[in-house]
Amino acid sequence: MKDLSEFEAICRAVDVPVLANMTEFGRSALFTRQQLADAGWRSSSTRSPR
Questions:
Q1: Each residue of 1-50: pLDDT tens digit?
Q2: Domain containing residue 37
Q3: With a threshold of 0.70, does the pTM exceed it?
Q4: Does an H or E element contain 13, and which?
Q5: At residue 33, what are phi and psi to the nearest 5 degrees?
């Protein structure tokens, strides 16, 4: 998924929690927690600060 509209479509299409990979290993842009929440996301994986 490349943009938030694709994330929103996934959230609407399934009735289960979906994980957003917001680490340097993910393939999408790095969205904020608020952006993901606004798109309907309930869980994300982020990189811990060092």
A1: 778 898 899 889 998 888 887 777 777 788 888 888 888 887 767 666 65
A2: 4-46
A3: no
A4: helix 4-13
A5: -60, -40
Q: Which of 37, 39, 30, 33 is nearest to 10 (CA)?
A: 39
Question: Count of domains in the chain?
Answer: 1
| pLDDT of 49 | 60
Q: What are phi and psi of 19, to 5 degrees?
A: -95, 130
Q: Amino acid identity of 38?
A: D
Question: CA triplet 48, 27, 45: central angle to 5 degrees?
Answer: 30
Count of other CB atoms within 10 angstroms of residue 29:
11
